[in-house]
Amino acid sequence: MKTMAIIGAQWGDEGKGKITDLLAEKSDLVVRYQGGHNAGHTIWVNGKKTVLHVIPSGVLHSSCTSVIGHGVVLEPENFLHELNKIKHITNISPENLKISSTATVITQFHKLLDGVRESQGPEKIGTTGKGIGPAYEDKISRRGIKVKDLLDKDTLMRRLGVGYSEKAILFKHLYHIDIPAIEDEVERLYKLGQEMKDYICDTFSLIDKSLSEGKKILYEGAQGILLDIDYGTYPYVTSSSTSSSGIYSGAGIPHHQLDEVIGVAKAYTTRVGEGPFPTELFDEIGQTIQLKGNEVGATTGRKRRCGWLDIPLLRYAIKCSQLSSIALTKLDILSNLSELKVCYAYEVNGKRVDCAYPGINLYQAKPLFKEFTPFKDDFSDSKTSKELDQYLSFIQESLGIPISIYAYGPDRQQVIFKKKLF
Ligand code: IMP
Fold this sequence. Notes:
alpha/beta; 3 domains; Adenylosuccinate Synthetase, Chain A, domain 1; about 425 residues; Adenylosuccinate Synthetase, Chain A, domain 3; binds inosinic acid
């Protein structure tokens, strides 16, 4: 096995950082291929918490090279801040951290636009407010700024100028806010580019060479398949391809097959921001899961909405990304609950629905639950109780793919591998 992907199989926050960190130890390269600092990957090592936003979770292993691919949107100030923070805990240098010269830059204008749209716009998405959507908009409309543009003031001025007059009118006459002068933004970005320049390179060639040398490459997704711009619950999605298709376009491996695609799913479901959520819990159990699971956004500090595991949504995620196995996380949070349920199908307009295809109106989906005897495992050894086994077997059989990893706590050790990976 030479190539593997870690992808969120729900609405993000599934624990991808922990799984990537575990498998990064055996990888030569860890590559982020989409999203930006809207992600928050929390990793615990020896009881110490590290939150990574745009830097790949492989960075905690100095033997592996971390790559920010061209499908990522990068906010330079945030990147440097994150870099300085983690320099205190791990060896990090331009040798083991690379940024694609053709990744897209998030500017002040993108952040401001994201913020005013959320506060004044006609439809609230519940974004992270980091400028992600507006930066991808500019990329697609061919007005974006690439990381390599940061290294030349004239190019920066020309590229920023392409969309500036239009944006200036929008901010002044529609949203009534002041924006920085273009010259100030050029100076700011140029300065940041100088601080980043040693990390910038042609990551396509790096990945291409590594593949031909038979190196082990791990692709790390951010957010989750249900937030994918095409496959997700539109419009309540992020603006990138979070599914496996994003790897082919955002990292640069169009001619390669992935050997393993692990979908990471919590043993329950969470969501932040707006949008449908069929199994959402509004009762005491939901509150217990939220508190016990510390379900608070690592990037925004928002409380996450919580609900039971949703099999129809996972079946859809498996199809969208050709998932070959599931890493089931946060099992410990469900231990000792007073009740335990799994949604195995929906009822929509009187008909049973097994897979959350896009044609299904999730607002009208009534979840059908199977109840289980709650398990009380404390995971102090690698044995699992009869009750937990029943719960896990049901999930595995319902999904039709193996559960390759069980995770039952935040630390590196709190995990059971059921399949040899890398
Ligand atoms: P944006 O990515 O900031 O544009 O936000 C769009 C939607 O994706 C909102 O519902 C956010 O809450 C959600 N979102 C973005 N990043 C994450 C994440 O890392 N975890 C969970 N939800 C996210």
